[in-house]
Amino acid sequence: MTALFALATSLLWGLADFGGGLLTRRMPALTVVVASQLIAVAVLGTLVIATGAWSEAGPQLWYAVAAGAVGPAAMLCFYKALALGPMGVVAPLGSVGVLVPVSIGLLLGERPGLLQYGGIAVAIVGIVLAGGPELRGAPVQRQAIVMTLVAAFGFGAVLALIAEASTTLTGLFLALFVQRVTNVVVGGATLYVSVRRGAPALPQEGGIRAVTAALPALAFVGLADVAANGTYSIAAQIGPVTVAAVLANLYPVVTALAARGVLKEKLRTVQAAGAGIALVGTVLLASG
């Protein structure tokens, strides 16, 4: 079951990142982050009230607060990097953050089997190769890579924190709600400061109407990201974090394939090979 929930996480995150990257090409990244998370807050707030999840409140929610504070910064960097593109290169590099929860799991005493160790190594190599990173080229390309690596560390920290934020299903609803409220507070404050400094909050073309028209897409991005956090938390609770984190971080392959199918971005040979290697690592992890 760990593998199933973790792979569901990779699918949801991959599609959310693809949608977020597309939206950021049409409107400011901070607006995408705040608007999508506001929708998620509304949905999660309804779930918390309906399930009586408030009764699960406890000290562990500080993990959710920390995850919520780190998340907007990571998403902002990542969406800006995706906007600089190409997505098929940026997205896989974002998964380097898997090293954070894997390292924490090992430090806490998790000891996967030999086959799973092999799967972790193979999958991480495949994920990195799937990026086909272009470390030479125009300044824009270097900027995209730096921003992606910063985002990757943030994503890894969020994975480690959210896995500790709850122990029950209703507690998970509350933890995700607290995380998203913190997302909105931190992201909204950053957006306010950005606007005060002269940056636009709305798209240059269409203004508020463009944001309103994009609400379905923003809702998908926000809710898919929330669902991915939820499935990852479950995967990390019922199985080794080292395994759950690696499988969940296959999401860049999903983003790259979506970019290939929708935007017709061509995958380089090394990217295609990396996707295949990552798949082999997945099989080893699941079978171990």
Automatic annotation (TrEMBL):
Q: Does the keyword Transmembrane apply?
A: yes
Membrane spanning segments where?
Answer: 6-23, 30-55, 61-82, 89-108, 114-132, 144-163, 169-195, 207-228, 234-258, 270-287
Pinpoint the EamA domain residues. 3-130, 155-285
Q: Which Pfam families match?
A: EamA
Give start-end of the signal peptide. Answer: none
Q: Which GO terms describe its cellular component?
A: membrane
Alphabetized UniProt keyword annotations? Membrane, Transmembrane, Transmembrane helix
Q: Which Gene3D superfamilies match?
A: 1.10.3730.20
Task: Please state which protein family the record places this protein in.
Answer: Belongs to the EamA transporter family.
- Name of the protein this chain belongs to: Membrane protein
Question: What organism does the record attribute this protein to?
Answer: Streptomyces purpureus
